[in-house]
Design brief:
81% helix, 6 helices
Length: 206
Amino acid sequence: MAKNDKFYFENFIKSTELAGKAASYLVECLESFDAAKMEEMLERMHEIEHGADIIKHEMNEALAKAFVTPVDREDLDMLSHELDDVVDLIEEVLQKFYIYDIQEIDAPAIEFAKNIVRSCELLTEMMGEFENFKKSKKIHDLIIALNDVEEECDQLYLSTIRTLTKNSKDMLLTSSWRRIYESLEACADACEDVSECIGSVIMKNT
């Protein structure tokens, strides 16, 4: 592996670490939720998201200047954008608590957010293996593990939306929570998209 190639893999590791930081901060916000501090929480989350944007721009600049890349330029660009999407979507979840003026947190939302943390941890571990994907004995298992977490999120989404619908007494609040859970599900899907992109790159290059 050429020395300059390490930049790409280190950039991806930084991206997944920031995604994990955003997910962990989302859990922290929900576990100690205080609607009066919503704007403060949004500001802190946006700082994390901005850091992720900087990392993505660094990748864009490197790809624009590179003559040769360790794998296809298009794959590196796609992976960079999909990683940035994860952080954007996590920020969007917190924004929806503000938009819909949520005052109390449902327990399943915290469970969902913790699953997203698990997904981001798996992505970070995956990226640690990605540089040596041709020799890695772990990366395939990590992809499977992340898929399992995403399936848990699917089941949690279904059961939670069903409970919301059955127990609905306030249609506006129910609709708000439905959109929040849709955003949480989108985060889980985005993590799986990154995992599938990694799997596709590996398949094309081995």
